[in-house]
Specification:
The chain is an alpha/beta fold and 410 residues long. The chain is built from 15 helices and 15 strands. The strands form 2 sheets. Strands 6-7-8-9-10-11-12-13 form an 8-stranded parallel beta sheet. Strands 1, 2, 3, 4, 5, 14 and 15 form a 7-stranded mixed beta sheet that branches. α6 links the parallel β8 and β9.
């Protein structure tokens, strides 16, 4: 049994019993911090915490590792509820295209973007795909990420989509952190189905989904509902089929335009709606009458030069907000959620406390992990971040680009 006592913690963050599953509106500025604290772990589970003067007698501490956290903060690891971390090759040539003036949509229309990744993935073996993805997962963990959602969607054929999902299943089995799988066969239309949307949707519904269910390859189903991609009606058809196969909807909407996808996704029981760089009044109204989590992806906005989502507007409307990386080779080649924390504060005018709630407690909700992740409480098995010595919690988003992680406890 592994026993760890972290002592002299400057600030034990997001700690307490009976914390809410979601923080919304003004509540997002609330962040419980216990000063001069200890935290006791047994095999990764929280078995005790409190002020330093109360730590003695908390348990049998023979064979104990003691970690002195003087001057350091301890917080629950981040939950990354939206990633595309399984891919074949990077796409830096498109980065150069954007410098030369092409937009994300223009690159996609000339055969780049998602279709570019799909071509490259088809050529790579499952084992090579797994080995590359595993290295990425290890880097994500080292940066403080303690739970990850990973989407398919760079396959766009029966064999390639199943290959991606089987890789994600292997990653689940290999790693100590929780990994959730999302089927995103409806990420784009393959070239051969560009004029035959019904044919590709039939392929998703009649061939991909039954095999995914038979092999237990996915937890969620996603659709890229956007102009030049999947219409609201097409999204509805695919999500209903996914639900019939036991998959919960989590969808891409409102990245470039508002089409009514938010309200339709909510109507179909979506756990989260992600991107939201564009927002209409009816989207906010639909969210206010739902239990659906809005998820913003500021790394994407930063990298491809599109508007940042108006998280401030949602929070001021009494809604919750989550943040995620959108880690992928085309529009967001960055997995570090400390960078996302900084962008949320700098570009979206979220306070450090609001952004941390969006990366922990609300992000855990967005991947169905509220019972185990996002907070520090008795029985919690969320991985734990120990920072380096820092002057304050706000220093973490302030010092963008600096590595402030001393250790991650799994």
């Amino acid at each position: 049994m592994s026993k760890i006592l972290i002592k002299n913690i400057k600030g034990l963050v997001q700690v307490g019993e009976e914390l809410p599953m979601v923080r919304k509106g003004k509540e997002m500025r609330e962040l419980p911090i216990l000063e001069n604290a200890f935290l006791a772990l047994e095999d990764g589970e929280v078995v005790g915490y409190g002020p330093m003067n109360e730590w003695e007698g908390i348990s049998d501490w023979r064979d104990l590792e003691i970690v002195d956290a003087d001057g350091c903060f301890v917080l629950p690891a981040f939950c990354d509820s939206h990633t595309h971390a399984v891919f074949a090759k990077t796409r830096e040539e498109e980065f150069v295209d954007r410098i030369h003036g092409l937009t994300y949509e223009e690159i996609a229309l000339k055969g780049g973007g998602i279709l570019n990744s799909a071509r490259k993935l088809t050529e790579m073996s499952e084992d090579d795909l797994f080995e590359q993805a595993q290295k990425r997962i290890e880097k994500m963990i080292a940066c403080g990420t303690g739970a990850i959602e990973i989407k398919s969607g760079y396959g766009l054929s029966v064999d390639a989509e199943l290959k991606m999902l089987r890789v994600i299943k292997r990653l689940k089995e290999k790693n100590k952190i929780v990994i959730k799988a999302t089927f995103l066969g409806a990420h784009a239309f393959p070239v051969e189905y560009k004029q035959n949307h019904k044919g590709y949707i039939d392929l998703i519904i009649n061939e991909m989904l039954p095999q995914i269910k038979n092999e237990g390859l996915a937890d969620y189903i996603d659709v890229f509902c956007e102009r030049n991609y999947f219409s609201v009606q097409e999204m509805e058809q695919i999500l209903i089929a996914g639900k019939n196969h036991g998959l919960i909807p989590k969808v891409h909407v409102n990245q470039f335009s508002t089409m009514g996808g938010v309200s339709k996704a909510i109507e179909l029981g979506a756990l989260s709606v992600d991107h939201l760089e564009e927002l209409a009044d009816e989207d906010i109204e639909a969210l206010q009458n739902s239990s659906c989590m809005p998820v913003f992806l500021p790394g994407c906005s930063h990298f491809i030069g599109i508007p940042f989502g108006d998280a401030r507007r949602l929070i001021d409307s009494g809604l919750p907000v989550a943040l995620a990386s959108d880690y992928n080779p085309g529009s967001t080649p960055n997995y570090n959620l400390f960078a996302v924390w900084s962008l949320a504060c700098i570009k979206m005018k979220m306070t450090p406390e609001e952004a941390l709630n969006a990366l922990t407690i609300n992000a855990a909700y967005a991947i169905g992990l509220s019972e185990t992740h996002g907070t520090i409480c008795l029985g919690s098995k969320s991985p734990i971040i120990l920072t380096k010595e820092i002057p304050s919690l706000a220093y973490l988003p302030y010092s963008f680009g600096e590595d402030n992680v001393q250790r991650v406890f799994l």
